[in-house]
Amino acid sequence: MTRERALSLAADPSPPWDFLVVGGGASGLGAAVEAAGRGYR
To answer: What secondary structure does DSSP assign to 1-41, as a single string?
Structure first.
């Protein structure tokens, strides 16, 4: 990543994601699949 790209990402007011899954087990996978199916990032 270039310095310019990092600065442009830091200045972007929109959050990089809509949904955060903590944990990668069966429940985390199900939550991630459901969120992706609903259009969340």
So the answer is: --HHHHHHHHH--S-S-S------SHHHHHHHHHHHHTT--
